Amino acid sequence: MEGLFLSFEGIDGSGKSTQARRLAATLRAEGRDVVLTREPGGSPGAEEIRRLVLEGDPDRWSAETELLLFTAARRDHLERTIRPAIAKGQIVICDRFADSTRIYQGVTRGDLRAKVDALHALIIGEEPRLTFLVDIDPKIGLARAKGRQTAEERFEDMGLEMQARMRSAFLELAKEQAQRFHVIDGGQAEEDVAAAIRATLTSVLDV
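The chain above was modelled as a monomer; its predicted structure follows.
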């Protein structure tokens, strides 16, 4: 059986992590073999890097340094988790992948998109078959994200204006790569968002 690689994207507090978990649970209940993973993270080495980039002062790293750290984490994740699972015929559901780097480091924290894409082509060379962009009002998303009160709030601490810029950039990226992206209204009830995602997966990939 051929494996499948899916990803979820969105601004902080969009509900994408919840929806990734829900889709994984739904597919498992249907008898599918699913690997649910996340970025940054998803492998032991990548999880160590996660702590470096998501905790601490907002100005802890420059955008360029973040780009290198995220790419290193992604390469380890790809080698140790994603590709082996796909080779086994499993469905990989990833909470964030390279699109987040294209937005967070490539657009909102500096004009690094060309460098992000060049490094991705050189080191990663992999894209999800389908990407769900869970779209939500930045005010709602930021309130949700801050309400979690975790140590991983470095990007949330950059404020509402940054969240708004990221949302706009995600929507532009979805238009740019429309063959892969599907925008889901995250302002609906959680159950309705999940139903829309499951229906899209069926209609687009017959899964």
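The first strand starts at residue 4 and ends at 9.
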